[in-house]
Specification:
The complex is a heterodimer.
Chain A lengths: L29 E5 L2 E7 L4 H15 L5 H9 L6 E7 L4 E4 L9 E5 L2 E5 L2 H10 L8 H9 L11 E2 L5 E3 L4 E5 L1 H4 L9 E5 L14 H14 L7 E4 L4 H12 L7 E5 L9 H10 L4 E5 L27 H13 L4 E3 L4 H5 L19 H12 L24 H4 L4 H13 L5 H12 L3 H13 L5 E3 L5 H8 L14 H6 L6 H4 L8 H8 L6 H9 L2 H4 L5 H11 L6 H4 L1 H20 L11
Parallel strand pairs in A: 11-12, 11-14, 12-13, 14-15
Antiparallel strand pairs in A: 1-2, 2-3, 3-4, 4-9, 5-6, 5-8, 7-8, 9-10
Helix pairs in contact in A: 1-2, 4-24, 6-7, 6-16, 22-24
Chain B lengths: L3 H7 L10 E2 L2 E2 L3 H12 L3 H5 L4 H22 L3 H9 L11 H18 L8 H14 L5 E8 L5 E9 L2 E2 L6 H4 L1 E6 L3 H9 L1
Helix pairs in contact in B: 2-4, 4-6, 4-7, 6-7
The chains are: A alpha/beta, B alpha+beta.
Chain lengths: ~600, ~200
């Protein structure tokens, strides 16, 4: 209880064991009481001076002081790593600071006179349970989840979570909860003021010649500053991105635990171990190869070791592989694992071309117009078509959604909304496209939150992505767009930046692996998980709740995942929708016996 | 996709079909077509080669010329001749690279072919797979070229050409190797070629 508020939230650092279901956040990273109020911080690396300055600015924002935002942005320039904070002023106002790129996350619960904010959604759920309250399924979230519409994580509005009462606060923004309603019963978002504090695209442009060195220095700094006091490991797939992180770690002079590599011997198309070995040999570093042939899709999902259901249905592709890495890292005493997430989003702006926030590449956005726009960009044209000219030409909505969901999952209505919201940033066409590609066309925020919360934090390990470091993002955005595009080579700027630090066989590698084989081993025609999943979907909760049409779903499931037929190649989106529905069903069942959240029909 | 009519014709064509006049239609001279393809396609090369290393440029140029040659067979209606030449194209050299070495070389060669294919807007999988086959065999790597077919959702015939190394499809969705039934296989392993022929 603080300053007349019923709750305040605090965030805890990861512990060696899964956090207990406790309402009271007993161990915030740091709690500061200052003249104007109290501020709780959580996250990586923040020294005392930074804390004081940031705390004072946040309190000013909470009190809606003039010039508070300018002061906050100045204070944030000294913050190097990923921090979230919540400030409550003595006058009752509150301000919530989300991290640069939205991870660690920040969730806001508001319902019937109570608000709470935490970086840990499970803690909010526990708090709600302790208070004898309940949570309600958010249909809007479910619709977008199944349809795999990528969330616009960094737009100035709270995003839905699986629960109606909880919202995810967008990264790079500070949210102010108005004093008059901070403790009132209001649940509308109108009393929230959300303002962006980080405009990375405004970084001073660097010359083409100096851009690679600047990026390399930023990456080395991003890795090196996360290492002090840590025993770090690196998840080294053998791809370019994770190899660059490994090289940056080496350049930072840090000593780390072994590199970890999921080794697939069952199919050459999956096997990147030869590249991982080349990197390890080049950097004279030990490599732990984790046999992963048996770690197929859907293996160990749901996780029977959990005492409570996971907070959200999101399930990244191969839980068992991630957990195998976590087990090895725990045995080696590792407390931080780096990976190469973010390399695609930053260095390959055309990668998600055509998907535009819809999560899959064949989503019927007008690809020809998109390609034409990219061509204009490459040739340095000044008068581009407006971004809003790229419209959806069809509605890629799963046929098995019921009317209750189909109405809220129409990309044809969603995309213009997204573009309009984006227009408030008032950017030129090229910058808008870069920012849009970086922020709105991928699931990496979900992946990063999921990997930490549902896999690594339970082992007391933090999973970190140096490519999402503030300085790396700014360094990439300061480079001319032409440096990021090449007629025949992807990620040319990253390759230039890391030239000489990696073996040529890795720097010149051109093709990525595909995980079709592991997917097939799990849920293909003779998949190990198929009997269980078939049984699961015979009488599923998603049918009972009126979310999914049973007959249509079963028809699609049999058609797309099971036989080796031509349709399978044509319908990757449908395949993904089915995957999402399966994970949703597993999640709903795990919650079915809970008292705090009983899934009910919309 | 492979031209299905052409695919069906492959098994029945005889050397006489190589005559310049066939099916009542005048075929373009293959060398003339190759010259035309090379000249037209080369307009796209500067963008491809811009800011590339010398090694990369040489790789792409070589792929470009090989692809122009292959396209001249396909474009002039001589797919059967092309297939016969591919079948007789030996694996160069006596030293066989290890599996890892072969994958690394294949990664580079296939990339070069895929890049060069952008200079030929009408290029299809048969041409790119054939060019990759010629270049990889020239590099001492024993790849197979496979042409397969399947039925699509409407009951129509769909076909595809791809490369295999150690009996696994190279740098494409591996499910294609299961979905398309191999009909033609250019392989140094007689039993694999025979299996496709019997299919």
């Amino acid at each position: 209880m603080l300053a007349g508020l019923e709750t305040v939230t605090l965030a805890a650092p990861p512990s060696r064991v899964a956090p207990p279901p406790s309402f009271i956040a007993a161990a915030p990273s740091r709690l500061l009481r200052c003249e104007g109020g109290v501020v709780a911080f959580a996250g990586d690396g923040l020294d005392r001076e930074d804390h004081d300055r940031l705390a004072a600015s946040l309190i000013d924002v909470a009190d809606d002081e003039p010039l508070a935002h300018a002061s906050l942005e100045g204070a944030l320039r000294r913050v190097r790593l990923d921090v979230v904070a919540v400030a409550v002023s003595r006058t009752g106002g509150a301000a919530m600071l989300a991290a640069w790129t939205g991870v660690p996350p920040l969730y806001l619960y508001r319902s019937a006179g109570l608000w709470a904010c935490s970086d840990n959604l499970e803690w909010i759920i526990s708090a709600v349970q302790v208070l004898g309250r309940s949570l309600t399924l958010d249909v809007r979230y479910v619709a977008r989840f199944i349809t795999a519409i990528a969330p616009p994580h960094l737009l100035p509005e709270p995003e839905p979570t699986a629960f109606q009462e909880v919202r995810y606060l967008p990264g790079a923004h500070v949210t102010r909860l108005a004093t008059a309603t901070a403790t009132a019963a209001a649940t509308a978002t109108t009393d929230l003021t959300i303002r962006r504090y980080w405009r990375y695209w405004q970084t001073e442009q660097s010359a083409s010649r100096s851009a690679p060195q600047r990026i390399r220095n930023a990456l080395v700094g991003a890795v090196g500053e996360r290492l002090p006091g840590s025993n770090a490991g690196i998840l080294l797939s053998g791809g370019l991105d994770s190899s660059c992180v490994a090289a940056a770690t080496h350049l930072s002079g840090a000593t780390t635990a072994p590199f970890y590599n999921n080794a697939f011997t069952c199919a050459p198309s999956l096997n990147e171990t030869l590249y991982a070995r080349a990197v390890a040999t080049h950097l004279a570093h030990p490599l732990t190869e984790i046999p992963s042939d048996d770690l197929w899709a859907f293996r160990d999902v749901p996780d029977e070791d959990r005492s409570t259901p996971p907070a959200e249905p999101y399930q990244a592709w191969f839980f068992a592989q991630e957990r195998a890495v976590a087990h090895h890292a725990l045995a080696d005493g590792v407390d931080v694992i780096f990976d190469g997430f973010g390399g695609d989003e930053l260095f390959q702006p055309e990668l998600h071309g055509g998907s535009f926030g819809l999560g899959h590449r064949d989503c019927h956005v007008d690809r020809a117009r998109h390609l034409e726009l990219m061509r204009q960009v490459v040739h340095g044209a000044r008068d581009h078509e407006p971004l809003s000219s790229l419209v959806v030409t069809a509605d890629p909505t799963p046929v098995f959604l019921t009317d209750a969901l189909a109405d809220v999952a129409q990309p044809s209505t969603y995309l213009p909304e997204l573009l309009n919201a984006f227009a408030v940033l008032d950017l030129d066409a090229v910058t808008a496209m870069r920012v849009f590609m970086f922020e709105c066309t991928h699931f990496s925020v979900y992946d990063r939150i999921w990997a930490n919360r549902d896999v690594y934090n339970g082992f007391g390990i933090r999973r970190r992505q140096p490519f999402f470091d503030r300085r790396v993002v700014e360094a990439v955005f300061s480079a001319p767009i032409g440096d990021l595009l090449h007629g025949a080579i992807n990620k040319p700027l990253l390759r230039r930046a890391m030239r000489g630090t990696l073996p040529s066989v890795v720097l010149n590698r051109r093709h990525k692996v595909t995980f079709e084989i592991m997917e097939r081993r799990g849920i293909g025609a003779a998949g190990a998980e198929l009997p269980r999943l078939r049984e699961l979907m015979r009488d599923a909760m998603v049918y009972e709740l009126g979310l999914v049409n049973r007959d249509e779903f079963l028809r699609c499931f049999e058609e797309v995942y099971l036989p080796d037929r031509h349709e399978r190649l044509e319908l990757p989106a449908l395949k993904y929708w089915i995957w999402q529905t399966l994970t949703l069903e597993v999640w709903l069942r795990q919650w079915s016996t809970s008292t705090v959240f009983k899934p009910s029909a919309p | 996709m492979v031209d299905v009519d052409g695919l069906q014709a492959l098994s029945t064509l005889t050397p006489a079909d190589e005559a310049p006049l066939a099916g009542g239609r005048l075929r373009a001279s293959r060398p003339a077509m190759m010259l035309s393809l090379t000249i037209n396609g080369s307009t796209g090369l500067p963008l491809l080669l811009r800011r590339s290393s010398l090694r990369e440029r040489l790789l792409v140029l070589r792929a470009f010329l090989t692809l122009a040659r292959v396209e001249s067979y396909v474009g002039s209606g001589r797919a059967a001749v092309l297939l016969r030449r591919l079948r007789s194209h030996p694996v160069k050299g006596t030293r066989r690279p290890s599996a890892d070495e072969a994958r690394v070389v294949a990664d580079q060669v296939i990339w070069a072919v895929e890049s060069a294919a952008r200079c030929f807007p009408t290029s299809r999988c048969l041409a790119t797979a054939s060019a990759g086959f010629l270049l990889l065999r020239g590099a001492g790597i024993d790849v197979d070229l496979v042409i397969g077919a399947t039925f699509d959702k409407t009951g129509g015939l769909a076909s595809h050409a791809w490369l295999e190394l150690d009996q696994e499809i190279l740098f494409e969705n591996p499910m294609k190797g299961r979905i398309y039934r191999p009909l033609v296989r250019c392989s140094s392993a007689p039993e694999r070629a025979a299996a496709a022929a019997s299919a």
